[in-house]
Amino acid sequence: MSRATQNALVRDDRTAYETVTGTAVGLSGAAFAVGLTALLDVVAIDYSVAGLELSVAFGAVLLALGVSVVGFGMASRLGYVDAAPQPSAGIVAAVAFTGIWFAVGAVVSGAAGLGTGGRLGVGTVLGGIAFATTALPREDVGSTAPAGALAGLCGLSLVSGVVGPGWEQVLVGYNATLFGDTVVPVLVLFASLVTGWSAAKAYGGFGARGRNVGAYVLIYLVVCSILAVLVGLVAFVTVKGLPGLFNGFGVGGAGLVRWPFLTNGAGLLADIAGVFPALVGTVWLVIGAVLFAVPTGVGAAVFLSEYAEQGRFTGAVEVATNGLWSTPSIVFGLFGAAFLIPRFGNQKSLIAGMLTLGFMLLPLVLITSREAILAVPDEYRDASAALGVSKWQTIRSVVLPAAIPGITTGVILGVGRIAGETAPILLTMGGGVLPGKSAAPDVLGSFQLSASPPFVSNPALLEATSALPYQLYALITAGLSGNIQNPQEYAWGLALTLLLVVLAFYAVGIATRYYFRKKLHQ
Amino acid sequence: MSQTDAEAVTTTANRTDGEAVSTTAGETVEETRPEWTSYEAGGETKLAVENLDVHYGDDHALTDVSMDIPEQSVTALIGPSGCGKSTFLRCLNRMNDRIRAANVDGTVELDGEDVYQDGVDLVELRKRVGMVFQSPNPFPKSIRENVSYGPRKHGDIDTGLLARLTGRAEPGREEALVERSLERAALWEEVRDRLDDNALGLSGGQQQRLCIARCLAVDPEVILMDEPASALDPIATSKIEDLIEDLAQDYTVVVVTHSMQQAARVSDQTAVFLTGGELVEYDDTEKIFENPESQRVEDYISGKFG
Asked: Which entry of A54, A271, B188, B289 is 20 to 30 Å from A202 by CA?
């Protein structure tokens, strides 16, 4: 066995090579992070640090990274460092770099004024060179040279100002314009991802260990960017919505807290317009849908998994429930409008909305409950049967308690979906654009007893009621110019309230699941 | 896990070359089966099995098995994987009813009453014939709830809200039952201070003794054990074995085991099943292990076959 394929068993001291390549990985990560913040408009790309524009600084960093990545590969190839590269960087890397360089060639030659044929030609030539450079030489050159050149090219275009804050490009045929403040961060993200991967491979000494480190860095950076988008989205709504939500907020007074946005209606008499009716409407809507869907869904799941003969019938039910779950919500809304509304006083009503959303929730509760019940080990059923306990008793005392965490997960997911649904309640529940406080449904206080059938009635359930997503939709279509002082602020506050309500339902569900799981295993 | 795999493998092997096995062994079996299996144990007969045949679909799992199991003794069932000993055990309390493809012919009499006749109350049967499984399977509940599960579901103990409000609940009875059952299963001293902890937190051996206590709590007459120690370490195994010997003073114990040493240590009489689901020899344990009649049993016991 040749010396080159052997690694030391124990790596205790950091070599200078590892320090330098590790620094390059860290620098790539930092560039990636700053690039993300620039893409999300947290920092502007023409922001100056010590007289240096951010985009130029980005370019310098990328240029340095590109040059050093190529240097890492050459150092390994010329035998200055102890690495274990394989004969080739592999077909996957080669195909990836071919695609990237083909695109680079086509875009750059297009910018230089070539026609379609010329672009394809330049792209093909560059792609071919990239393929040969990646696949043919040893791994240490193959996985650094194309990556370094790419980062260098991006860096050069930023440093030289070819692409910068003032840059813009009209996209012919797309009816859109690309601006520098989008393109620069994207270039930075992309190039730093490539150099991060390449430097990480060098850090691991190429070979199996290098590929492992490279894949780790690549996945880590991509996951970070996904999380950043999520956090950015929530942060965006929060920042925009906070002023509206806390308009007139104060501690003390009649109640413990004054929170007019949540406790006021939007009527003329309210000095600060609030979302109380829609908030109460959404809460009742979700409660009603859950009360309808959970008992029926869990009951059906128990029947299908414990009692029914597994066969064509259960198969057909399974296909049907899966189909129902992917049915567009507007179709459920139409069903509610055509079927439920004529049966509940011929007008849009809270109970029609509850039932429509209950129908939407039902398939998911059924599917997840069934999975959860099937996941309960058969040993429990055997043990219970061997003690002479009947099937129903076994289901009630052993199977369902063990399945509750799974069932709860299904209900959480379903509630998250239906709480934000607009289309079905638009057709079945209605409600005003800017309902006054008196429009809030008082479900508990409206029960009335009577001597003749149906003995109990509840007018609040039969009235058109507003809910948060519908009110937001109605506000936007009405042009945000209602009889309130600051419609923009009001609408963003409403959006934030909706987000918080959905998250609150999530929190309740997760706490429930945690409680039952702990009870099962603790 | 490996046991189950091995079982599956042998079952398929039987199916493919079952022909060969029965032809080579056929003459010996026909010649001698009547004397070797018509053993009469001392004492009252608790379970009398007559001409039992079990099919799983097309697979013949038990072939014409007849044997009498005496009361207040330990009967061991041994044999290679897939020989039908677990199937036989599961026939005794009709747990095979839970497998749709299983088809049972013949009679199993418990104190002279056929458990396979029409109108048998499975709840009552399984209260009288309890079962302990191969891998410990306590419910994900507290130790106390595990033990009192059977009596509660049968209505012998009622600690529900309504019972408490109407004064029907007798909290002392549950305590006494839990203590008595755990003590009988030699687990009381180890868990008396943590009866409300989840049973899944116990060690494997403790879990298996808890399962035995859970079975004892419904006060059965017969206890069936399906390889009760195969998932346990040697120390836990020896505790279970001591327990089995001890239980035979009050109960009729039928135990399936892979380990011949275990059968020799704990049982009074031993039945040997060999491939094809036939009962080859049934006699005093000492006789089986020291001087078996059948050449095939001798080969199996000395490790030449199986």
From this structure: A54
CB pairs under 8 A between A and B: 69
User: Given B95, B130, B140, which is nearest A402 (Cβ)?
Assistant: B140
**CB distance B226 to B244 below 8 Å:** no
Nearest by CB: A385 against B95, B141, B154: B95
| Distances, alpha carbon B299 to alpha carbons A292, B26, B270, B292, in Å | 66, 16, 16, 10
DSSP string computed for A383-409: HHHHTT--HHHHIIIIIHHHHHHHHHH
Q: How far apart are CA A459 and CA A347, in angstroms?
A: 12
Contacts of A401 in chain B (CB under 8 A): 140-141
Residue B278, beta-bridge partner list: B274
Question: Top-level CATH class of A269-468?
Answer: mainly alpha
Nearest-by-CA chain B residue for A393: B153
A454 near A462, Cβ under 8 Å?
Answer: no
Distance CA B136, CA A447 (A): 53
How confident is the model over A380-413, as pLDDT tens digits?
Answer: 999 999 998 888 999 999 999 999 988 998 888 8
In terms of DSSP H, where are the helices of A40-90?
Answer: 54-77
**Beta-strand runs (E) in A159-200:** 168-171, 176-179
Q: Where are the domains of chain B?
A: 2-138+216-301, 140-201
Residue B138: the pLDDT is: 92
Which fold does the domain B2-138+216-301 belong to in CATH? Answer: Rossmann fold (3.40.50)
How far is B229 from B227, CA to CA, in rounded Å?
6
- DSSP assignment, residue A278? H
Mean of pLDDT values over B170-178: 84
Question: What ipTM did this prediction achieve?
Answer: 0.80
What angle do the packed helices A180-203 and A207-245 form, to 10 degrees?
150
